[in-house]
Specification:
By secondary structure, the chain is α+β, with helices and mostly antiparallel strands. It is 27% helix and 27% strand.
Length: 292
């Protein structure tokens, strides 16, 4: 199947407060964000005409920008409205949304105090992050070469574009080896996440998940924890040494793009997608459809 380039599509992109024809939404080659990663973004999904946890995403976009030392020139309410309007303008009721904010091209150098802050929202149809047949039987992960950094060395509480460089490298390496994704440890050797989703591990009916002290405490992650607790499951947030990976019976990932996806393998360790993982996958799918 041939890919449709993202710069050559029909539709509209919301750019700096106005709708721009998709193919005309451009930035200059000397945009600061391209050279120095001074950009933050969100990933959101619309289900049946409603964007799940929209305001939480818009609020996080603002927080991420503040961590990177810039101010988005649109309020949370304005970004919420623009997300809805962009979906409507493109005729979509089930969609993936990508709000992004970045430093412009007025200055090129480490110091960028005078750059203009731009904001854009693009939406498109994106049914599943992983192949449907992979999700059904559980995806296979290998181990990532790179680790999530110490918060003292990078702005890990932000959804900043620069933090995803090691994710792209790791996912490419995994796919070349026939895996769907890679598991990332943190700088201490604790389990962190996959390249684009949070992780949960099950042992004796108890759900364990890494403490998000050097990676994003995902909005989907918090939602799944709430769903699991409502169903009566115990959820323990803690540091999980990599050596424990062989002691769990079920593993699953979660994220806006990944939703809830069972895992069948991490390196030398294998797991069987069981009732707990599959039930939470179904519960989450029902929740986002009814916007609970």
């Amino acid at each position: 199947m041939s890919l449709v380039p993202f710069d050559d599509r029909d539709g509209w992109i919301w750019l700096d407060g106005a709708f721009t024809p998709w193919r005309e939404a451009k930035v200059h080659v000397l945009t600061h964000a391209l050279h120095y990663a001074s950009a933050v973004f969100e990933g959101e999904r619309m289900y049946g005409g409603e964007i799940f946890k929209l305001t939480e995403h818009s609020e996080r976009l603002h927080r991420s920008a503040n961590i990177l030392d810039f101010e988005i020139p649109f309020s949370v309410a304005e970004i919420d409205a623009a997300c809805k309007e962009t979906c409507a303008r493109n005729g979509l009721e089930d969609a993936y949304l990508r709000p992004i904010a970045w430093r412009g091209s007025e200055q090129i150098g480490v110091s960028a105090q005078e750059t203009k802050i731009h904001t854009a929202i693009a939406v498109w149809d994106w049914p599943s992050y992983f192949k449907p047949e992979e999700r059904a039987r559980g995806i296979r992960l290998t181990h990532a070469k790179y680790r999530r950094p110490d918060p003292a060395t990078a702005p890990t509480a932000s959804k900043a574009v620069g933090l995803y460089m090691i994710c792209t490298i790791s996912k490419h390496a995994a796919e070349r080896e026939g895996f769907a994704d890679a598991l990332m440890l943190d700088w201490r050797g604790y389990v962190a996440e996959s390249t684009g989703a949070n992780i949960f591990l099950v042992r004796d009916g108890v759900i364990h998940t890494p403490k998000p002290d050097c990676f994003l405490d995902g909005i989907t992650r918090r939602t799944v924890i709430g769903v699991a607790k409502d169903k009566g499951f115990e959820v323990i947030e803690r540091h999980i040494p990599g050596e424990e990976l062989g002691t769990f019976s079920e593993v699953f990932l979660c994220g806006t793009a990944a939703e809830v996806t069972p895992v069948a393998q991490i390196g030398e360790h294998t797991y069987k997608p069981g009732n707990l993982s599959l039930s939470l996958m179904d519960d989450y799918a029902r929740l986002v459809r009814r916007q609970g």
